[in-house]
Amino acid sequence: MWDYSEKVLDHYRNPRNVGKIDNADLIGEAGSLACGDSLKLYLKLDGEKIVDAKFQTFGCGSAVASSSILTEMIIGKTLDEAKKITNKDIADELGGLPQEKMHCSVMGHEALEDALKKYYGKEIEEDLPPQTADKIVCTCFNVTENQIWEAIKVNNLRTVEEVTNYTKAGGACGRCKGTIQDIIDTYYKSENKKEEAPLTATQKILKISKVIEQQISPELQKDGGDIEFIDLEGNKVKVRLTGMCQGCKNSRMTIKTFVESILKDKVDKNLEVEQV
Ligand code: FES
């Protein structure tokens, strides 16, 4: 028997936003009845904002719960914000899913991605495997190479068994298991290469700006503060604290440690932060 969170059980017993939107602006589909579960997601837009979302699914309780929570997560969001949602976010929002049921969160993400592709076109397909044409790897469950690659990337999957839990690929005849292992190997080889290549100064500056803007600044803004990236000298990142952070002497060290640890983690472990 699976161990489900209270939230999964609640969304399974009382699913939100079930049904169809007759004049939907975007429709996304994932899975197929032949493979055991499927999901159709309807989105209604006002400009770039999702004002309504409904779903129809054929699947287990986790599929219902994942689809239900997904509609709640995207209503009120812009398409750009919705584009950033991963299957991991869906599972986290449910308070977790059993490993063997993670493929339900993947199905939710795929339906959302399918809907958004109709709006953004190919632009959404970034950081995919080296080859250009997507191909079916698991014929039993109709799972493609790109879907497996995406699941590995978002969830840090390391084994064929984990890939099966998240995508179903490999869960029937098992003929595709060798290819799944090859995809895992290729993915981590390319990741290692990325890590080995040192960043140029310009690349470092761009990356620092991006991390500050997208990850650090929003956190400080929650408490009425903010941060400005001034310059990079060697490995010294010069920043200026603004708003509430500016005069808050007690928290300066904490903020410095916070900013430094994120920059070390996301950009370069040798970086040091200096307030100017
Ligand atoms: S081809 Fe993947 S399980 Fe059969």
Give a quick rundown of the structure.
By secondary structure, the chain is α+β, with helices and mostly antiparallel strands.
Descriptive report:
There is one protein chain. By secondary structure, the chain is of the alpha+beta class. 49% of the residues lie in helices and 19% in strands. It has 3 domains: 117 residues, Sufe protein. Chain: A (Alpha-Beta Complex), CATH 3.90.1010.10; 61 residues, Orthogonal Bundle (Arc Repressor Mutant, subunit A), CATH 1.10.10.1100; 75 residues, Fe-S cluster assembly (FSCA) (GMP Synthetase, Chain A, domain 3), CATH 3.30.300. A 3-stranded antiparallel β-sheet has the order 1-2-3. Strands 6-7-8 form a 3-stranded mixed β-sheet. Strand 1 and strand 2 form a beta hairpin. Helix 1 packs across helix 2, helix 4 crosses helix 5 and helix 5 crosses helix 7. It is globular. The chain starts with 5 loop residues before the first helix and ends with a strand. The structure holds FE2/S2 (inorganic) cluster.
Q: Shape from CA axes?
A: globular
* Sequence of strands across the biggest β-sheet: 1-2-3
Mean pLDDT: 89
Alpha plus pi helix count: 11
Helix content: 40-55%
Provide the CATH top-level class of the largest domain: Alpha Beta
Gap from first CA to last CA: 57 Å
CATH T-level topology of the largest domain: Sufe protein. Chain: A
Structural class: alpha+beta
Bound molecules: FE2/S2 (inorganic) cluster
Strand content: 15-25%
CATH architecture of the largest domain: Alpha-Beta Complex
- How many domains comprise the coordinates? 3
Could you describe the largest sheet, including whether it forms a barrel?
Answer: 3 strands, antiparallel
Order of helices and strands: HEEEHHHHEEHHHHEEHHE
Rounded to the nearest angstrom, the radius of gyration is 21 Å
- Unreliable residue runs: none
How many E-type strands? 8
